[in-house]
Each structure stands twice: as structure tokens, then as C-alpha cells.
Amino acid sequence: MTVAIKKGDVVRVISGRNRGKKGKVMKVFPRDHRLLVEAVNLVTVYTRPSQRNPKGGLLKIEGRIDRSNVQLVCPRCSKATRIGFQFLNDGTKHRVCKKCHEII
């Protein structure tokens, strides 16, 4: 199955406690159907003191979010939209916005 959302895309959360937030996709986990989105689903994690972080303590980091809970924001029409796929005459496959029908 083709992964419709890729690293660097801007997405909007459509369900859950972070509903309505926008963020940039930092990493995609295609096997788990999950994404890491910037400033969304922040989780508090305790870290032990180390050379990298001498104080230790509580840190807020992004948690993974399921891909079904986000929609891609089209760069052309700036709306959260579903994604379609289209083959061009030269045989290349491209993502298409379902609202404005433009190639993403």
C-alpha cells in the first residue's frame, strides 16, 4: 500500500485530544501506520542524568500519532483534504488534492 503522507508534509489532526492542530511531519513509520508530527501529541518523559543532559528530569517530546487521525493540508488551497493518486502520460504516479484537483 502506498504511503500518502510523507516527511515534510503539513498535516492537520482531525481526531483526538490534539484535534485542530497543524504540524509538519518529522518522521513516517509505514509499517506501524504512524507519524511523528512536530508539536503534536507531546508526551512527558523522565530522563536520567547523563553527559548529554546533566540535569535529567522531565522532558516533553513528540509522541507518534496514527495516520488515520490526520489529513494532509494542500499547499495550493490550504485546506485539509483527502489524497488521491493520478498517473500522468509519462507513467509517473503523483498525489492529487481531492478538493482542488491539483498535483501535490
Structural description of this entry:
The chain has 104 residues and is mainly β. The chain has one domain (10-97): SH3 type barrels. It contains no helices and 10 strands. The protein has strands spanning 10-13, 22-29, 34-37, 42-47, 57-62, 64-66, 70-73, 80-81, 83-87, 93-97. The chain has a 6-stranded antiparallel β-sheet with strand order 6-3-2-1-7-8, with no helix packed on it. Strands 4-5 form a two-stranded antiparallel ribbon. Strand 1 and strand 2 form a beta hairpin. The two termini are 19 Å apart.
Please render the helix and strand layout as text.
Blueprint: E1 10-13, E2 22-29, E3 34-37, E4 42-47, E5 57-62, E6 64-66, E7 70-73, E8 80-81, E9 83-87, E10 93-97
Give a short account of the largest sheet: 6 strands, antiparallel
Instruction: Return the domain count.
Output: 1
- Flag low-confidence runs: none
Strand order of the largest sheet: 6-3-2-1-7-8
- The backbone outline, from C-alpha atoms, is elongated
**CATH level 1 class label:** Mainly Beta
- Overall pLDDT score: 93
Q: What is the architecture at the second tier of CATH? A: Roll
Total strands: 10
Structure annotation, total helices: 0
CATH topology: SH3 type barrels
Task: Please trace the helix and strand order, writing H or E for each element.
Answer: EEEEEEEEEE
Strand content: over 45%
- Secondary structure class reads mainly beta
